[in-house]
Design brief:
Rossmann fold, globular, single chain, 10 helices, binds nicotinamide-adenine-dinucleotide, 39% helix
Length: 275
Amino acid sequence: MRTLSGRDLAAAIRAQAEAEAAAGPQPRLAVVVATADEASLWYVRSIAKAAAGVGIACDVVDLGPDASPDQIGETLSRLSADPNVHGLIMQTPLPAGASAQELAAAIDPRKDVDGANPLSLGRLAAGLPAFAPATAAAVMALLDHYEVELPGRRAVVVGRSTVVGKPLAHLLLDRHATVTVAHSRTRDLASVTSTADVLVAAAGRAGLIGAGHVAPGAVVIDVGTNPTDDGGLTGDVDFEAVSPVAGALTPVPGGVGPVTTALLLRHTARAANLP
Ligand code: NAD
């Protein structure tokens, strides 16, 4: 079994982002936050640090966990219209009552570096240029980096969220894979996932994918990031159980995660250089 680390690929993408950032005006990324969720705040800090490392300015606009949907929408509209801001991210979770899908429509698609605006997903589905959600793009980047063949092969995506499962299904279709999307209402998940040449787990359920879910030799990409009792992270795939069966498997942490952050930065550098 081959372990598909994302660390070297992430470093290469960060180097590209740094070169692209240096080629024009300094890119600026704005991250709108309205939560007290520790994991989410930790992630925002890690984006800000990574941005600084490649010469991208990063403003964290923290509205606090009691922000109203109107406040969040107005902030996104203001930053969308600000010519000094090139990339704009709305961090989730949002306060109860705020719809991420509705609010993301306020993000200018040209600044939508995490592909959150429904227009970006629509363009992606139509095969038009758009920023893909960084996590979905990271899965594709890993598959390409490790030269995983896709045309005609069976890909199964577990999870149908707007940020990961749905855009990823479109990206895989564009690459001529035969795509199946499984989700929480799928009956007999193992019978579906075990047909996959390429299996992507993006359900947010620790250990959901065991040895019986995986075909011998399959390439398995684990998107899940589930907090553990000791403050760490674990994936959706039971790494120990699946290792002897799979042909290749991404670790958590150190697989999809670092590539996702690096791609957010490269998207921001590209947004700053858009004509
Ligand atoms: P989500 O909760 O919005 O969606 C989860 C999806 O999984 C749903 O479509 C649901 O139908 C499906 N699902 C849930 N339980 C299932 C089950 N038992 N069997 C089959 N399908 C099931 O989550 P999300 O935002 O798409 O994130 C998914 C996971 O990816 C989470 O662990 C999240 O933390 C992680 N994530 C990682 C990164 C990264 O950079 N590595 C980025 C974003 C999300």
